[in-house]
Amino acid sequence: MSVLVTGGVGFVGTHVSLALKRRGDGVVGLDNFNNYYDVSLKKARKTLLNNHNVFVVEGDINDARLLEKLFDVVAFTHVMHLAAQAGVRYAMENPNSYVHSNIAGLVTLLEVCKSANPQPSIVWASSSSVYGLNEKVPFSESDRTDQPASLYAATKKAGEEITHTYNHIYGLSITGLRFFTVYGPWGRPDMAYFSFTRNILQGKPIKIYRGKNRVDLARDFTFIDDIVKGCLGSLDTSGKSTGSGGKKRGPATYRIFNLGNTSPVTVPTLVSILEKHLKMKAKRNIVDMPGNGDVPFTHANVSLARRELGYKPTTDLETGLKKFVRWYLSYYGYNHGKPVN
């Protein structure tokens, strides 16, 4: 297959691109290198991709002319759409960036895909955050997702509705993946496990949020290698789009899958594992969770992905964090930022 990976130098995009290349597929990355987090990390990922002969185009998914040019040059069979404005809390500071990337950018991409010849099959990143205030656990794909707790979640939910429309009208084969708290080497610095690691090494206090009634927050942390397997399994089983010339010729696949680890771990436990691997104690500052869009827990039911994709997560948090810490220390060193006191 030949795959366009949007968000190509993002955390998941980098790993998926490398995995596709390793098994012999054609890969082109597209990324706008925005400064939501440290651009030098994105450039280092690009160097890693270049070293493995993955070409990355610098550009934006809102640039329809650029996308059309890419499809003119390469007859992509698949699109792995991972470009997005991520993060739950940042939406309170910069709401428009979420609409720009996660809604307008998605529509721009879908418009180009529907008119492409041949139409590619699309796999894209939704999010476990669409479950919002859902209290039934574990979260299943058939559960309610109409109570988002953040603008980020609302834009991902909107994406699920928008992709359904394009599948229905234009015959695009579309698979949405609800990722559950992905972590690992080359990860995102805005994620808690990453900033905890940085602050523990620098001897700075870390802020640990606690839910209502002093309940510890818990997340279904999912290691990047497991997520990559789910992404490749989705691409491999996506089925062809059925439209041509922008017109639907028959029904096409529309699927949504949870990709999680199935065993939630509390945030204080995560910190304890990091302390062990870093051989340093954290200065813990426990605070009550503000109303900023975070949910108290996530827990994935992955039986549908297991049945349809053969998805089976194999990395527990202890093992995954060990790999992350090893990468972190080799990339940044012990004294990242400023000397440890």
Radius of gyration over alpha carbons? 20 Å
Uncertain segments = none
Structural class: alpha/beta
Counting copies of identical and different chains, the oligomeric state is single chain
Q: What is the helix content?
A: 25-40%
Element-level helix/strand string: EHEHEHEHEHEEHEEEHEEHEHH
Biggest sheet: strands, sense, closure? 7 strands, parallel
Report the portion of residues in β strands: 15-25%
Given the C-alpha coordinates, what overall shape results? globular
| Spatial strand arrangement across the major sheet | 3-2-1-4-5-6-11
Instruction: List the total number of helices.
Output: 10
According to DSSP, the number of beta strands is 13
Termini separation: 51 Å
Mean residue pLDDT? 95
Attribute tags:
single chain, 341 residues, alpha/beta, seven-stranded parallel sheet, two-stranded parallel ribbon, 10 helices, 13 strands, globular
In summary, what is this structure?
With 341 residues, the chain is α/β, with parallel strands linked by helices. The protein is 39% helix and 16% strand. The chain has a 7-stranded parallel sheet with strand order 3-2-1-4-5-6-11, with helices on both faces. Strands 7-10 form a two-stranded parallel ribbon.
Question: Any overview of this molecule?
Answer:
By secondary structure, the protein is of the alpha/beta class. It is built from 10 helices and 13 strands. The strands form 4 sheets. Strands 3-2-1-4-5-6-11 form a 7-stranded parallel sheet, with helices on both faces. Strands 7-10 form a two-stranded parallel sheet. Strand 2, helix 2 (39-51) and strand 3 (55-58) form a beta-alpha-beta unit. The protein is globular. It starts with a strand and ends in a 9-residue tail after the last helix.
